[in-house]
């Protein structure tokens, strides 16, 4: 029943989006295809601007994935992209469920995978990814599958390197692999990332040079995006209460380095304690926090926090899971009853970012080392 509900929700979400007028459907996918089409006809990825003034922000290696899609009509690509997104998320839930640290997941794997699939397809990140035609949810799933399902196998790290070549934040998994003793996975992820980057540099040298020397550190293309309410990164939390300027960016950079280091250390400690699922999710949530831009479709890592063991006490675990799932829902945690001004309003508009920061900075300290082992017994 859980699997039937998950598939039904995924199909309904896909059909609802595909029925929208063409001009309102999957605007980010339109930017990807438009920018790559311009590149293949002698232009530059970074001069293309979409209908909503949306620029192309990804590395040139992303164009390798989208170049074959330009052979088909955009309408058919949108349908195929939507179906592929649903399949990747449902298959990812089936692969990741067996790594959940709570005992019921080990005893009833079909129920656990169905529950995880239902949680993912009803979340805000999944719906946003479908609506925008984004690639973020797919990158999250393949990174998590690479770190867990392929753990200890020869090919571990390849999928992480591919994800990092499309979006730089999964590079945090390279030091995570290294410091947890998974040296081969660290080397393979770094080598795959380097190979994808070199291939794109050979094929498109001008755009590669422009990206790595200017676009990757330029703030002019994202200046108007940072302060939007949908940005739930650490920089977004700062920008929602202060003007975005050089001082704020320096403060964010220092805070991001500190939080990133803390998240990596806690993920490594959790991995060494044997809680592999929580370690990978903590590392993934850290990438959401430290990235300059973290939109709703980037935040599937936050949904996976529901599978983390918070306490050996059953009621605490239930409250934690409910909190994560409600905050990750498109409507979020309803705080309107507390007022529309001041702190309640700021918390309401930043609840996902605050939950991510709290998970990275506080969750490992709130749990006792033996909680997972005690719960398993």
Q: Can you give a write-up of this model?
A:
This protein is mainly α and 377 residues long. It folds into 3 domains: 1-134, no CATH class; 156-208, no CATH class; 227-377, no CATH class. It is 66% helix and 0% strand. The chain has 22 helices and no strands. α8 (136-148) packs antiparallel against α16. The chain is globular, with a radius of gyration of 20 Å. The mean pLDDT is 86.
Number of domains: 3
Q: Please count the beta strands (DSSP E, at least 2 residues each).
A: 0
Give helix and strand order, one letter per element, not per position: HHHHHHHHHHHHHHHHHHHHHH
**Hey, roughly how much beta strand do the residues contain?**
under 5%
Mean pLDDT: 86
Q: Helicity, in percent? A: 55-70%
| Number of helical stretches of at least 4 residues | 22
List segments where confidence is low: pLDDT < 50 over at least 5 consecutive residues: none
C-alpha Rg (nearest Å): 20 Å
Largest sheet: none
Short note summarizing the structure:
With 377 residues, the chain is mostly helical.
List the helices and strands and how they pair.
Blueprint: H1 2-18, H2 27-40, H3 62-66, H4 74-96, H5 103-107, H6 109-121, H7 124-132, H8 136-148, H9 158-166, H10 173-179, H11 183-203, H12 205-215, H13 223-226, H14 234-239, H15 246-272, H16 276-290, H17 300-304, H18 314-328, H19 343-349, H20 351-361, H21 363-366, H22 371-376
Helix pairs in contact: 1-4, 1-6, 4-6, 4-8, 8-9, 8-16, 9-11, 10-11, 11-12, 15-16, 16-20
């Amino acid at each position: 029943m859980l699997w039937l509900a998950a598939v039904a929700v995924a199909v309904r979400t896909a059909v609802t989006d595909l029925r929208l007028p063409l001009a309102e459907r999957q605007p980010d996918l339109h930017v990807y295809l438009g920018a790559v089409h311009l590149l293949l006809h002698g232009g530059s990825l970074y001069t293309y601007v979409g209908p909503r003034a949306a620029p192309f922000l990804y590395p040139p290696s992303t164009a390798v994935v989208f170049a074959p899609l330009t052979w088909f009509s955009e309408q058919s690509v949108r349908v195929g992209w939507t179906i592929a997104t649903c399949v990747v998320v449902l298959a990812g839930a089936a692969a990741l469920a067996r790594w959940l640290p709570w005992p019921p997941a080990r005893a009833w794997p079909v129920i656990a995978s169905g529950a995880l699939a239902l949680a993912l397809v009803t979340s805000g990140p999944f719906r946003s990814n479908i609506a925008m035609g984004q690639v973020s949810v797919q990158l999250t799933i393949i990174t998590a599958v690479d770190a867990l399902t392929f753990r200890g196998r020869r090919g571990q790290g390849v999928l992480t390197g591919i994800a990092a070549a499309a979006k730089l934040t999964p590079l945090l998994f390279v030091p995570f692999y290294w410091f947890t003793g998974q040296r081969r996975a660290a080397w393979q992820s770094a080598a795959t990332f380097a190979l994808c980057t070199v291939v794109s540099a050979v094929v498109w040298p001008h755009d590669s040079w422009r990206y790595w020397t200017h676009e990757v550190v330029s703030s002019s293309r994202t200046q108007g995006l940072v302060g939007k309410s949908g940005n739930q990164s650490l920089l977004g939390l700062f920008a929602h209460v202060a003007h975005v300027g050089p001082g704020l960016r320096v403060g964010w950079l220092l805070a991001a380095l500190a939080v990133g280091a803390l998240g990596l250390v806690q993920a490594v400690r959790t991995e060494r304690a044997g809680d592999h699922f929580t370690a990978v999710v903590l590392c993934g949530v850290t990438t959401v926090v430290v990235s300059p831009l973290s939109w709703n479709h980037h935040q599937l890592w936050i949904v996976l926090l529901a599978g983390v063991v918070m306490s050996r006490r059953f009621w605490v675990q239930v409250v934690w899971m409910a909190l994560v799932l409600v905050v990750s829902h498109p409507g979020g945690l309803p705080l309107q009853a507390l007022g529309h001004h001041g702190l309640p309003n700021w918390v309401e508009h930043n609840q996902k970012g605050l939950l991510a920061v709290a998970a990275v900075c506080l969750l490992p300290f709130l749990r006792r080392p033996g909680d997972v082992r005690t719960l398993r017994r």
